[in-house]
Amino acid sequence: MKLFHYHYWTDSVEETEDFYWKCGFKIVQRFGKNKTYHPPLTWNDFRKEQPIFRVIEVRKGSVNITFGEGKRPIFDHIGFLVNKAEQHSICKRAMKLGWGTEMNERRTFIRAPFGLRFELQCREEVIDDIGAKFAIKGMKIGIKKEDGINQVTSVFNSSLPEIQFVKSDKLELQCVLVNGLHQYYKDPNGVVLLPS
């Protein structure tokens, strides 16, 4: 199981893409509401159309970040690369505890009682290099309510030492520790990226 991903909804889509591009991420794909704007297209090619983006995907090493159009920055979920056996076991334990579970061929989501969704992804092609030095090593996630926080260990069959949950006014991704990052950054949605 490998922590590899997070997703945000944002009112600063172009700024968010530009931020990650300047941090060395490649823009992989852009899905508008009605059509795609994948690279090699740039914002200068379609800005006048004022597209509404469902998802923009950026990657570097073994990190995958997605974001889409929203009214304000809203943290949506984090993702783990898992094998089929891990996916099945995690879902089984989550369902036993009454966590919401959405399964399909592309990916699976489980929702903890404290509101955070966890993506379970079995397809390694969603990252550029599984063994890359550039990788997520940890996250600090703010949660509003602590209902079910003690269930995380049993659902994932581990303590998930790379994730620290802290009490907050809202569900938020506060900090991401990234191996291979050389300095402190703060993205347009308030997410702090720190070298690990």
Mind explaining what this structure looks like?
- The protein has 196 residues and is an alpha/beta fold.
- The protein has one domain (2-195): 2,3-Dihydroxybiphenyl 1,2-Dioxygenase, domain 1.
- It has four helices and 13 strands.
- It has helices at residues 13-22, 43-46, 84-96, 152-156; strands at 2-10, 26-32, 53-60, 63-69, 74-81, 100-103, 108-111, 117-121, 135-143, 163-167, 172-179, 185-186, 192-195.
- The strands form two sheets. Strands 2-3-4-1-5-8-7-6 form an eight-stranded mixed β-sheet, covered by helices on one side. Strands 10-9-11-13-12 form a five-stranded mixed β-sheet, with no helix packed on it.
- A hairpin with a 2-residue loop joins strand 3 and strand 4 (63-69).
- The two termini are 19 Å apart.
- The model has no long low-confidence stretch (mean pLDDT 94).
- This is VOC family protein.
- It comes from Bacillus salitolerans.
- InterPro entries: Glyas_Bleomycin-R_OHBP_Dase.
